[in-house]
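#random but structural
TW: two for the price of one
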Amino acid sequence: MTHSPLLRSDQTLFRDPDVFELTFVPEHLHHRDAQVKELAFLISPALRGGSALSA
């Protein structure tokens, strides 16, 4: 019994292989709203010249 290849030579399993690059930064952090809000709260004093809070 022979198996045919799952992908052709011009196909890939990944929609965007760039996500595996070390320099990749996603536009949106899905399902991380609470963490993003906490980080914003913690660094906001530093952005105004004060000391950042710790978590």
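TW: number two ↓
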Amino acid sequence: MATEVHQQEEPSTSNADKMRAMNRLPLMCNDVEKTIKELSVKDIKSTQLDTMRSKVRRCLEEVIDDEEYGQTALEHVWHSCYYSLICHIRTSISGWGVEQKERCSREISVLTVELAQLASLHKKRSALISVYMGDLRRYAFMLFSSDRERRLAILHYREAVATDGHSGLALNQLGLMKQDTKMTTALLYFMLAHLAERPFHGAFGNILALLTRATSQHRKGRLLLLLMHCFTSSRIIDFNEYRTKWIDQIDTELDSHQGAHVAFNVHLLSLASACLATKDCEEQSRAVSTMLLDATGRLLRGIEELVASESAKLLKKGERRRRASDSNESVHTDPEEARNSKNKLNNDGEVTDYWVAGYRMVREQNRLNGIEQDDDVVELSEDESSELVDSSVPPSDEIREAKTLLVALLHFTIVTVKQLYGEHTPTSIRFEFEQFAQRISDTLNSFMLGDRATRAELNFYRPEQVDLPIWYVTTEDAMLLLPTLVRRLIDTPEVPILFDEFFRFVPIASNKDMVMKNMAKLRLACRAKQEEARALLPVYVIPEDNVVLDHLPVLRDLVNDGQLRVVIAEDTLRMMDKIKKGDIRAREGIRWLQQGICEQGDRLEMRKADSVLLCAEDVAWKVQTTKKSLATKPVTVTILTTDILGEQYDEKPLMVGAKISRENVDQFQTRYKAALKEY
């Protein structure tokens, strides 16, 4: 009976001890604060202060693990015993010498060691304590400009994120460390802090403040301009201009194998869309997410090209190996030895290629579903495909870039699925997202390990890299997040992708109205037609003589818009010089040409040529040889004429040579204005 009474009274006694500790702790912290305020510069290292902090820590250890009081007590101790000392140092450091600064730096290191000991004893609060240790190092960096302190602060913050990935505090502090050196990286950290499960409530204000600072510093990066417009304005016309420039930049960077930079942009814009959605900016959020959805086709195509390039390398390597093997077999005639060698090869190559095995599975599934396949596809053998899954061999640059882009697409899918596939999302956007989900499922299957399909989400890379923190997107090893994001993708209920031995696209709303689907298809067809019309706009415009004389205002508008370059052939100038005495139009044209070349030389120029056609051929040849990014356009140079060419050339110009078209000036002006209105 006595034992039962003792067991019932023990919890109440423990609670009483916690209450007494909570009552003593504020008084002890106030005493420490008073002592810190009375310290002189020479007494930063004080035995009395060390003793008082030691007593405070012993009192804190009685309640630090308590669910109700633990975090509050830790925060109180931090502000009173550590942060107040930092504030005291900051107010009096201006007149310090080198010796005093070194003594202060050592004292900050001692404070960090005290917190590290506390974190090792109380794992439950280790994430928050790691943030406090990072803050101490950050303040030391601000006070003494030591790069070592900066690196240590970042390490402590990253440790806090790895320990507690649901808190936004450490992510916000990482953004503070990066905002002076890498502004876009800092923005990404602030957005992650705002979107965390336990968000840091000042993170959105930090985003706006950093964008305002970028505006005041006249930063002109396309990504920053796009973000500044999204967070500070709602003019859809300006957004379309930024959107077009950013998508054009993606094409250029993918062609130059800058996939890591493109992936980072996708990460940042995906998070920006989600942040805007939390602040009732639905229109801006959907505009950004829809822009990214339109760009996914380019990214998936880039991934396919990278994988195809690596496959071609493996085929060539396998062919050389087979030739060497055939030559060796002609020398070794022992059948038993050949059989043993073959068995050993099969045992070593249990794991098949990352994409080939999955690709075979998809081909077999498509065959069963009646989908036609290309007959000219060459598959890799087991020996050739097993090379890329050897964990001791690092992935090639192509595979690394492909995985980095795939990580960005998975992150985009997880973050923006509610904006693009929500209940109130327009049907046309939902239909586009379903098409993207189908393609991303096929891409994931192509990266899947064949004979370990039941663990495919763990086998995109090494299993020990499954639960990496999200800040890896800011590093060169962003591809290591692939297993983590695959698992999140599967666990996200809004994403219409399931995993059952392989990835399958399963639309959530399969009973859609066919009328709405047809409207969505019409919208896609209209957009494709607009893209085609825009692609047919030339880079250079060369007017004939009559156009310069009779349609000079049209040429002025083209130059002022800055979308095209106007080139005047020297033969046209000679013609106007001959008739300038009797024709006011020629005099106006010469004055405009002289003034425009001086003031707008980047958009108006004159070239030596005996005719307009020769001038066009010269311009087209130089573009083809020097500007590879423009050489892919179907039309590079357009000759403007006053001749009537017929109604069949209202939408598509008359081609008179390779990359050269001839078009009526009025028809061209109508098509040009329509393209500007749409984009």
